[in-house]
Please model this.
Amino acid sequence: MRAAKTPIDIVVSEVGPRDGLQSVARTMATGHKKAWIDALHAAGLREIEVGSFVPPKLMPQLADTAELVAFAKTLPGLLPSVLVPNLKGAERAIDSGAHAMLLPLSASHAHSLANLRKTPDEVVAELRRIVDLRDAKGSHCLVEVGISTAFGCTIQGRVEPAEVLRLVRAAVDAGVDRIGLADTVGYADPLQVGTLFEQGIEVAGDKLSCAHFHDTRGLGLANVFAAWQAGMRRFDACTGGLGGCPHAPGASGNVATEDVAYLFASVGVPTGLNFNALMALRERVASWVEGEPLHGAIWRAGLPRTVAA
Ligand SMILES: [Zn+2]
Model:
């Protein structure tokens, strides 16, 4: 395990305004998204994926991304990131002044073709073009690749760890700043997670820096813990576990931000997050997405008396 570099050892990176809302049909008002980002910042979060530069026609829910990046940059110390589907999106991300942009790369060949209409290696080539564009523009926007379906795929089934590690190596060679492994569809188990992150660190070192889990089948927090034991320190999470899985109707979404905060509080690892503020925010987000199911566990009973908020 790597030693703590700062008093706050864990970065919880909120993905609600992007990953969480992506599967919500009704468009959330920009004012509510700003209130959400503002409250996350007040609760101690310093990294938030605020939206995506996909064509607004494809995803009207996320059409206000540039405005949200600008808003997030007014909050002290907050680092907004955005998802980008391709070079065009990357250009908009750079122009928006986002701190980081995340390009999804599917480790499953079948998933990649179905969702991105590109092979994984074609996505790696796009990644290289994005790094070149960023450098040519003199931008400091970090380029991150999120390797999705890294632990299994609803279309293809098994995804070979060797293929995931090959893509990790290819991403390093393409010049990316950060790499994450994502269990997009909730197939991962904690032993698999520990092994793959350990192997990934051997290939990419500190560049492998993010773990993204969905709680589709109830193993989300166990997988977070396994990735932490393997050396990961940054975890994606979503307020109230909002968001589903496009390939598993009715399934729960990302691990809940307040659950991840509780997990690390329970083992005495500092996250810098204010638990009560997160719980209050959960209620507000629930009212903004009325009718959408929220998930997670800690909200039901609250903190035990033995754990400080
Ligand atoms: Zn996700």
In short: The two ends are 26 Å apart (CA to CA). Residues 130 and 136 are 10 Å apart (CA to CA). The chain has twelve helices and eight strands. Confidence is low (pLDDT under 50) at residues 1-6.
